[in-house]
Every structure is written in C-alpha cells, then in structure tokens.
C-alpha cells in the first residue's frame, strides 16, 4: 500500500509540473537588438503618438536589401504582398487624438498601423492600416487601409538606430519623419486646431469649468486672438461679465466688438476696462498693442500707466520701449533714465541699461 501511495503521489507531482509548464507565461524580457520606443507630439491641443521598434544598421546594407524595395511577399501570415512595417517587431502604430489630415487626406481619430513602401528612385508611399494589432506586416491586408499617399524619400545624415522625430512644427502641423541609415521618410500631419479648440471649449464649459468666469473669458479670448468664432465668443464673454466685470472681461468684449466692426459699441467698454486695470494688466495690454504694431496706442496705454504708477520703474521702462519702437529716440532715452532713477529691480535695471547702450546714451 505504501508503494502504491508513493507511485500515485509521484504521478500527481509530474502532472502538476506539466500543467505549470503548459500554462505558464513568459516573464517580460528586453526587446534585445530592436528596443521599443515611443514619441509623442502635441499640435494645438491634439496629440500624435508613434510606438515602434528601433533596429540598428550594424554595418548592413539597408535599402533594397534588409528592407526590400517595393511590395514584398511575406513568408508567414497570408503569404501576401506587403509594405515595410516601418520599424521592428510588432506593428509600428500611430495614434491621433482628433481627426487629422495626413498628406492632404482626412483621417479619423484613432490608432493605425504605420507602413512605408520605398522604391529605388526615392519615391514611396505611406500607408495607415486600421488593423494595427497584427505582428509586423505578416498579416497586412490592403482592404484595411485607411490611407495610402505618395511621399518623397529624402537623403539625410547617417542614423544608426531607426528614429522617428517631428520637425517643421507650427501652430497647425508638423512633419513626422522616420530616419534610418541615410534616408528619411517625411509625412505631413495637420490638425484644424482652431476648430478643435473651440469645439473642445464648448464641451468643457458644459462641465465644472463652466461654473467660473475664467473659463468663459479664456475661451472668448482664444477666439479673439485667433480670429475665429466671434459670435460664440461674444456669448461666452457675456457669461464671464455676468460673474466678473474686470479689465480682462471688458477688454475681451471690446476686442470682439471691434473685430466685428462694431467700434462705437467697443469704445466705452475699452475705456471702462482701462479704468479698472492694474499696473500689470495695463503693461500687458500695452505690449499686446506693440505686438500688433500699434505703437501710438501702446504709448497711450504705457503713458497712462506712468501717470497712475509714477514711482514704478517698470512702467517707465515699458514706455521707453514703445517710444523706441516708434523711432522717438529722445523720449525713449528720457524714459529709460527715469526708470534707472526709481531704484528698479535687477531685471528692469538691466533692461533699461541695455536699451540705453543700444541707443548710444550710456
């Protein structure tokens, strides 16, 4: 009986070990020669995320060899013609937070597999596939294509590790570039930033943000500064004014009315706004006018600030800058010297002294 019991126990042990081996999961290990990487870029309030594996050149011939030219028959999956997976290991993926334009074509928000085709003459294609979960391009199927667009491959400085980067970034767009060996693949990505911001503000103001005047004023000011959605912005600023009649809210409404050509209605609001302004608010407003090349208007605002705050060195330094931009050197020098006589902070002192040196007065 003891021998039978021992045999039975040994059987159970062996079966248990087999079961553990059968169902065990591998522990997470490094990706080895092609480490995983991720790059993200914000454009406006939208984001683009690229996740990929980074193979190295390692002295190997790349184009037309390791990465064959054109479309290639895969040895696994569907044995299909497929593009290059634009990286190593799993699918290279690209994720857009909002609807986007890629190489001139509209693409819905979401995640896509990113593929490229390169030809010997440096022409190529970029492909976005709705099937982004597959491994590499082994199961690529063109019926899942969301986008296919022509691109021009460019020569670049040697890059050992395959690298994605964003260049030529501006308010609405950026170029995503894949760099490897001595080539780069540029893809133009654009968002309708103003439309997205206004739509997002509309939704956010339905939530907790809508219980304070700052949210409405901020959204209205964005519309004013970017010259979009004036009618909606006027409704927003009126809600802000109902909670807080201040320089900020009055000034934004005056600006919106001026933008709509309603100058007569804007003028009293602007005067009321200036009468409520703090030193810092007047200073900021003056620099906004300077940025719009309205030096005369800026001088009026800065001059008023010196009258309201005559012992502030900063107000005189700012007025001097406005005169200098207009080309009135005499008054500019007088203002900078006045600033230095009022025990300025280090930052203001350096600003006034630097300006005087530029004008040859120090």
Provide a descriptive summary of the structure in words.
This protein has eleven helices and twelve strands. It is an alpha+beta fold and 362 residues long. It folds into two domains: 36-191, no CATH class; 194-358, Serine Threonine Protein Phosphatase 5, Tetratricopeptide repeat (Alpha Horseshoe). The strands form three sheets. The chain has a six-stranded antiparallel beta sheet, with no helix packed on it. Strands 7-6-12-11 form a four-stranded antiparallel beta sheet, with no helix packed on it. The longest helix is centred in the N-terminal third of the chain and has 22 residues, at 2-23. The radius of gyration is 32 Å and the shape is elongated. The relative contact order is 0.07.
Distinctive features:
362 residues, four-stranded antiparallel β-sheet, Serine Threonine Protein Phosphatase 5, Tetratricopeptide repeat, six-stranded antiparallel β-sheet, 24% strand, single chain, alpha+beta, elongated
Radius of gyration, CA atoms, in whole angstroms: 32 Å
Q: Under the CATH scheme, which class of the largest domain?
A: Mainly Alpha
Identify the CATH homologous superfamily of the largest domain.
Answer: Tetratricopeptide repeat domain
- How many domains? The number is 2
Q: Helix share of residues?
A: 40-55%
What order do the helices and strands follow?
HEEEEEEEEEEEEHHHHHHHHHH
Number of strands: 12
User: Outline, from the CA principal axes?
Assistant: elongated
In terms of DSSP E residues, the strand content is: 15-25%
Please give the order of strands in the largest beta sheet.
Answer: 1-2-5-8-9-10
- The low-confidence runs, each spanning 5 or more residues with pLDDT under 50, are 10-23
CATH architecture of the largest domain: Alpha Horseshoe
Task: Write down the overall mean pLDDT.
Answer: 91
- The end-to-end span amounts to 110 Å
Helical stretch count? 11
Alpha-beta content class = alpha+beta
Query: What would the CATH topology of the largest domain be?
Result: Serine Threonine Protein Phosphatase 5, Tetratricopeptide repeat
User: Largest beta sheet, briefly?
Assistant: 6 strands, antiparallel
